[in-house]
Amino acid sequence: MTAPARIVSGDLYDFFPFCDKAVGLLCADVSGKGMSAALMMAHLQAVAHGRILALDQSSARPSPSTFAAMLNRDLGSRFGDNRYATMFYGEYDSTTVTLRHVNAGHCPPILISPDGEVTVLPDGDLPIGLFPETTYREQRISLPSGSAIVVYSDGLIDALNSKGEEFGEERLVSCCRLLPKGVTAESICTTLSQHVAEWSAGAEQFDDTTILVLAVD
What we know:
Layout: E1 2-3, E2 11-19, E3 22-30, H1 34-53, H2 64-75, E4 85-93, E5 98-104, E6 110-112, E7 118-120, E8 139-142, E9 148-152, H3 154-157, H4 169-177, H5 185-199, E10 209-215
Antiparallel strand pairs: 1-10, 2-3, 3-4, 4-5, 5-8, 6-7, 6-9, 9-10
Helix pairs in contact: 1-2
């Protein structure tokens, strides 16, 4: 789910249905706001779909690290200097219960284990669109039944209250610890967005906010 700070958003989230047992998930945050950011976001989404979904059956799908490198080259210098996007991209395979993912300068995702333990995953590499020769490291985590991963844009933790205080990563982690076991992805998104809305009530939203959740049954 996403909430634009203005009429249009520079945030992007998407799912890629590969087969019955595998799915890709993408969350990105384009630099800037308003129409220029939204146009760059739309271009990024179109290129991502072309790289992932426009393959025939004989073509091998690129690994997450290769996919990020492709988008980095595709996006570089297309929208002018110092324009970039942070991005998280992952592929979950239910047969191996493994999520292969890359983090290109995006907020560190939060992993919720089946027993409710909450872990902030490590930072990643540079955002896409800055340097054409950047390489990206693939990371792997186990997502067994009952676990979930929460991916979000920085508008979530940067949200200010009426006193000018940020919601912050620590408060987000605390909210995740309070989630009941086995909660659905939709419920996680709704609950977290409600916490942020209550925190920032009376303050102007200055950045796009996006939450993407993958919960494993």
